[in-house]
Amino acid sequence: MTPLSHARQIVDTMLGYLGFTVKIDELEGPDGPTLQLHTEDSQLLIGRRGATMEDIQYLVNRILQRHIPQAPRIRVDIEYFRSIREDKMVEQAREMGDRVRATGQTQTLDPMNSYYRRLIHNVFVNDPDVQSVSMDGGDSRFKRIILKKRE
After folding, report:
1. Alpha-carbon gap, residue 87 to 90, rounded angstroms
2. What gap in Å lies between CA 58 and CA 4, rounded to an integer?
3. Is the Cβ–Cβ distance between 20 and 37 less than 8 Å?
4. Are 62 and 44 in contact (CB under 8 A)?
5. Residue 29: pLDDT over 90
6. What contacts 106, CB < 8 A, 6 or more positions away?
């Protein structure tokens, strides 16, 4: 059994105990192994701003790591919510990067967790004009990214 199949079994069992009926697709894409969940109760599983979906992903990966210590991190997406959200964040960051390029003024993005910060940093890693820098926010999980002209 592959780690992705094992993760699928974990999600199916966990949500089944909670009374949800879901169809789960296993995907191997450029973002890594992903479980795509389809259900009529998608808003309940996504939660406010994706918080419940993040919690489900965290639990699935914790359980999976306990059973298969070398298992890769599994992404959990519900009705493409995560994919759409990531696309919007990257698009917004690119627009702000264009503003930095045009005006030279720094731009500050909304606070985000390390996973989303990595996505944004990857957008500008090879950009010759704009660089992204995480603001030091102490111990907070959510930090802002500043986009500024590359020196």
Report:
1. 5
2. 14
3. no
4. no
5. no
6. 100, 146, 147, 148, 149
Which letter does DSSP use for residue 50 in this model? G
Query: For residue 139, what pLDDT is reported?
Result: 67
Residue count of the chain, please give it.
151
Residue 78 near residue 53, CB atoms below 8 Å? yes
Question: What integer is the mean pLDDT of 125-148?
Answer: 87
- For strand 75-78 and strand 32-38, is the pairing parallel, antiparallel, or unpaired? parallel
| Amino acid code (one letter) for 86 | E
Tokens of 18: 């909670």
**Spatial distance between the Cα atoms of 73 and 57, rounded to a whole number of angstroms:** 9
The whole-number pLDDT of residue 49 equals 87
Q: How many angstroms separate the Cα of 100 from the Cα of each of 40, 78, 93, 96, 123?
A: 42, 34, 10, 6, 14
